[in-house]
Amino acid sequence: MNFEKSQRIKRLPPYLFVELDRKKAEIQAKGVDVIDLGIGDPDLPTPDFVVEEMAGAVRNPKNHRYPSSQGSPAFRNAAASFCKKRFGLELDPDSQVCACIGSKEAIAHFPIAFVEPEDIVLVPSPGYPVYHIGTLFCGGISYFLPLKEENQFLPDLFSIPQDVAEKARIIWLNYPNNPTSACATEDFFKKVVDFAESNNIIVCHDAAYSEMCFDGYRAPSFLETPGAMDVGLEFHSLSKTYNMTGWRIGFAVGNPELVAALKQVKSNVDSGQFEAVEDAAIAALSSDQSFVKRMQDIYTRRRDVLVEGLRSLGIKAMKPRATFYVWITVPEGHTSESFSTLLLEKAGIVCTPGNGFGEPGEGYVRMALTVPEERMSEVVERLKGVL
Ligand SMILES: *Cc1c(COP(=O)(O)O)cnc(C)c1O
What we know:
Layout: H1 7-10, H2 18-29, E1 35-36, H3 48-58, H4 73-87, E2 97-100, H5 103-109, E3 120-125, H6 130-137, E4 141-146, H7 162-167, E5 168-174, H8 186-199, E6 202-206, H9 228-231, E7 232-237, E8 250-254, H10 256-269, H11 275-285, H12 290-312, E9 325-329, H13 336-347, E10 349-350, E11 352-353, E12 364-368, H14 373-386
Parallel strand pairs: 1-10, 3-4, 3-5, 5-6, 6-7
Antiparallel strand pairs: 2-8, 7-8, 9-12, 11-12
């Protein structure tokens, strides 16, 4: 047999963290107490009230049958109410909301509805890898939009050549941003709407970190922007907000035609999420959000320990107003790779080299605020010994 793989798979980018993963395992095997700031996965548990809701919902036979692939009416209502309370959006739960099995699932599947082979998709770089991979799976071509510090890590829409804009079907955006932690301004979102309207491009906004905000900052929804509902679809996730990465639940909201297209794809590839998970998610979305506030306070304290520690050592680090990532400029003479290797080998600290998120991320490393405050102080202590 010759199991020749498809071009879709052969074109996948190499996994850039192979070497780092190998070194981490090697150092751990030596008995080093490694502190892992590499992964964007909350370390704290899902709140009890959500777990309790799930425990009851598992026993309910109504949940034992096939779910609806677009999400139960109750879940879609809860998602719409959340968006109304939080962002002031008026969404019809039937035509403007679709549940997804974690937002990653919908982000990867949505392009199937619109991207033909050779079509262009505008993809921010550095960025969450799934935008590019979803494009590849459709045979499309990613045109990377570099996110540069001098533009506050917002893509420069005016630098996109006209012939590229004409061939582009989708532009992906993600604010608050992973990995840079940058936040979008209303003015930027307005420019995006104009750009999308004049070039007939669908705007897909990944809002995975909309609730993870600090210092009183409130991240806007892209859909709050005048005209956005004509051009856009927004992907929301319960994963980071409620420490529910393992549960696989999120939702997409926005333009009814775009939501219908997503539902059409999904109804042909999956049969929805377990409705007990949706019941638990309803409890999270319709709660008073005091849990979210508590998490924000915890991340704020961790952030302050790390950023102030880094700065006291002369390291340039952005103090994030949102997301649980700190985006750090590597010191003179280092690359993303050499700096992360140094931290791992000399201090037992794992961080993510910025170029792993795309070439324009070279010169940076990302640290996640996913260890307790005392461990964060330990990180700073260990850095003092190396830098
Ligand atoms: C974590 C993350 C997601 C995926 O979240 P799930 O809902 O768990 O699939 C999507 N986008 C970005 C930018 C993320 O960091």
